[in-house]
Amino acid sequence: MNCRVLINKNMSTQKQEKTYNSEWDNYVKFWEKISYPFRPNPKQIAFYEKYLKQYIVKKQNPKILIFGSTPEIRDLCSKLKLPATLFDFNEGMYYGMVKLMKRKPYQEKFVQGKWEDVLRYFKKDEFDIIFADEIHTNIIIKLWDKNLKDIAQILKKNGLYFFSNIVMNFDKSITFEELVKKYKVDKKYFDNYQNKVHIFYQLFLGENCYDWNLRGNVLHQLRKKFKLYSKKNKISMEMMKKVWVDERDIEHDAFGIYVEVDPPLGEVYEKLFPHFFIDDIYIDKSHPVYRFRRDMVLRAKK
Fold it and tell me: Is residue 116 one of the residues assigned to a domain?
């Protein structure tokens, strides 16, 4: 199983600048095309900002950890002039995502390492605030309990853990045949990227490409089935690209073997409850795929 993982050494980028690498632009080109639910939207950031401002009134100069290199969260910390440590397995993402920020990074420190091994890099009770935007889509389900326990340990008592995760929606499913019919009736529907995401998640269920053992969507299985179906039913490559989330992936297997860990909502709560209290939950009901994402403000059980 491969979940978007590139791992290397520890490092701090605050004291030195890296020589430009064209790989960074590849990350930018991909991420600038995607949005909610894969990236935070303004309403979600406002939800975080509300609780963050309330916290810093009581605790000035909080120590902040950001899992990943999410530009919107980095912008929020820069807006409030809050120094932050970024923790990611891919230094290229850290440098690339700067191009998608709307503000100049404010006193950022970068640590490169494995999300699954938190206590190797950080001490217990080290951070007041922790942001983790969908990091668990990249962590296999059998490691969730240990990982959440470790995150609770590095979070101070009464500190805030901003957690978000995409969950699998089992209410609806769609097959390739139904997808083709939908395209023929309303081609413009597929011009909207979020609509594609909505359909994409339904396809995993309709074509039995959700792996219960992994609790995830197995992308290469779905892509392989779609190619076979299209060949058998004489579906053009042009149409395949129109309905697929990333057209590069249909022709060039851009994602390779990829599993996105998206457990059912009930299981997400079951994994969180032993380690955290839930202060608040945000759901963007105005969005067509809102049911696939939960954003929460958590506190560690200490």
Answer: yes
